[in-house]
Write a structure and sequence with these properties.
- With 236 residues, the protein is α/β, with parallel strands linked by helices.
- It has a single domain (3-232), classed as TIM Barrel.
- The chain has helices at 57-64, 68-74, 89-98, 115-119, 137-144, 149-161, 180-192, and strands at residues 3-13, 20-26, 54-55, 77-81, 104-109, 127-131, 167-173, 197-203, 226-228, 231-232.
- Strand 7, helix 7 (180-192) and strand 8 form a beta-alpha-beta unit.
- It starts with a strand and ends with a strand.
- The relative contact order is 0.15.
């Protein structure tokens, strides 16, 4: 078993939840977002010079162990991202099986895909970081080129199986695609579905302009790209 890994980013702080984390970013994504921060994930020819494209789970664990002390001391761990990491669910499941139980396992996902792939990871992942785009079907399709019906279905399934405190939803204000009122409607709908951790932020799309358009880029979330306006519904 091998994982098609695009980038491994170590020693990340305050971008993927609590503590120091290592991001494992995979190739492949079914969405075609206008302001995709990692558009190179769609090009299988793209990789970073310091990364082997075809890690085994065992080889990846050896890399992750380099930061074991930081994970333990700060409550951090592994973050699986991309691209859409759920395309590699079986590989991620095996990595989680081999990983130290003290490490936190998080996944950054659009929640777009077959529920059976997500179900593989329900008992492995400590925190689900979900980039929801917008709950309005028309806005979602205009921005991503795909329907959000699977996303909404998977949200409901995940809510039944995972405690809401383990689900962190990121809800963007996307210039030219949704309005503040659209975001409020999305947020309210998410509340009615039982989600309490909802973070609003704004895409600063001018940062997507590159003087080297063919050079692979890995931008941080939310530090370099997103302006955080964070909201979390308080428990009644």
């Amino acid at each position: 078993m091998h994982g098609d890994i695009m980038k491994i980013s170590r020693l990340r702080m305050a971008t993927d939840g609590t503590g120091v984390s290592t991001l494992v970013a995979f190739h492949g994504c079914p969405l075609r977002c206008k302001f995709c921060i990692n558009d190179q994930c769609h090009d299988e020819r793209t990789s970073y010079s310091d990364v082997s494209r075809n890690y085994t789970p065992e080889a990846l664990i050896k890399v992750l162990k380099k930061d074991d002390i930081y994970f333990r001391m700060t409550g951090g761990g592994i973050v699986f991202g991309g691209g859409e990491p759920i395309l590699h669910a079986e590989f991620i499941h095996e990595v989680c099986r081999l990983a130290d139980p003290a490490w936190k396992k998080r996944i950054e996902t659009s929640l777009y895909g077959d529920w059976r792939s997500f179900q593989v990871l329900v008992n492995d992942i400590d925190e689900w970081i979900i980039d929801i785009k917008d709950m309005n079907p028309g806005i979602y399709k205009k921005y991503t080129q795909v329907s959000n019906s699977a996303v909404i279905r998977n949200l409901k399934m995940l809510r039944k199986r995972v405690h809401p405190k383990q689900i962190w939803i990121r809800l963007p204000h996307i210039p030219g695609y949704n309005t503040d009122e659209d975001v409020v409607r999305s947020r309210d709908l998410l509340y009615t579905l039982g989600f309490t951790r909802i973070e609003e932020f704004t895409y600063e799309y001018s940062r997507f302009v590159s003087t080297k358009p063919h050079e692979p880029r890995m931008l941080e979330i939310p530090g370099l790209l997103l302006k955080n306006t964070g909201l979390e519904k308080k428990d009644e």
